[in-house]
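Hi all, long-time lurker, first post. I run a small reading group and we've been trying to get comfortable going from sequence to structure in the token notation. Rather than ask abstract questions, I figured I'd post a concrete chain and ask someone more experienced to write out its structure so we can walk through it together at our next meeting. Sequence below, copied exactly:
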Amino acid sequence: MERKILYLTNIPAPYTVEFFNLLGERYKLTVLFEYDTVPEREKNWFCKTGEKYTAVILPDNILKRIRKVIYYLRTAIGPIIIGNYSSAVGILAIMYLKIARRRFYIHADGGEIQKENVLKKKIKRFLISSADWYFSPGKITDEYFRFYGNANSKILRYPFTSVNQKDVLPSCIPLWLKREKRRDMYNFAEDYIGIFVGSITNDKGIDVLLKAAANLNGNIGIHIFGGDITSEYEDKINKLEITNVTFHGFVNPDKILQFIRYADVMVFPTRHDVWGLVVNEALSQGVPVVTTDACIAGKELIDNGENGYIVQSENYMELARRVNQICSSDSMAEEMSQKCIERIKDYTLQSMAAIYGDLIEKCELEIERAL
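-- Answer (accepted) --
Happy to help. Here is the structure in token form:
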């Protein structure tokens, strides 16, 4: 008999919808989404329907929302996975499951132990330790769950990604071909291209990126995708007399890999990221990454000097130095490019769904045998 799964999460991001479609091929999956959009994202970024699972958008009305969540939890037959465990809906779900003495999983896309006050730490431990299993994408999040969770529960490791298997390049693109393609397709004239993809905010380190751009070699251009330039960043560009930065606005997710694959380096100077999927996306296209020690994906997937570099957050001079270094040697850049693909080849949505399903099956079979 087909196993039923109930999954609670926040928004229908394109990569989560694709993951749920793949998981829905194996199980009868119902996903409760807290919201259909969020203000900080372009509306056409979201996917609102699932082809192979049941998608439920929770109502805005708080009482209706609570009743709907409780109804689905109360009537759930099979595994329950909480992916939004820090939100009001997630906290409500955990409290209900705790009182009802129901087994459940907590899923994290990433997480790192932070400095916080005693009360917040106690609340997080109370909630997170209620779970029976934890889905973690890497060793840093393993430590997070060991710190906040139940030491006797199991940590289940899965490869977190947004990249479809068909989009991972089989081998790196020669640099001469990259230059030819980006000139013909996008009219990018610089000899070397650094690309940034993400929201246009200080949290992502755009101001740091602009200061780094002012210290790059003259033949390197920075192309920024994710939103329109703000007056704040226009002022910084004018003040620093920067001429090598171009803002391209929002680009649909299904097109962004086309821009990434013809870049020489991904530059991601984030101040905080619980993961940072652009790292996966860049590596899948054979593009070395320079990111910060505040990016968990970087710390999990980047080996310094092999497929990119990790620099200290806020250090724009070191950021510029590493970008210059990658762009100064074609032979080194091509070697790093191939290592990028080797590092990420198992991080596909297909692998993610397969491993995720196998882990659920293993845990549920252990329970059934114990009964």
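A couple of things your group might point at:
Residues 165-344 form a domain with the Rossmann fold fold (CATH 3.40.50.2000).
The chain is about 45% helix and 15% strand.
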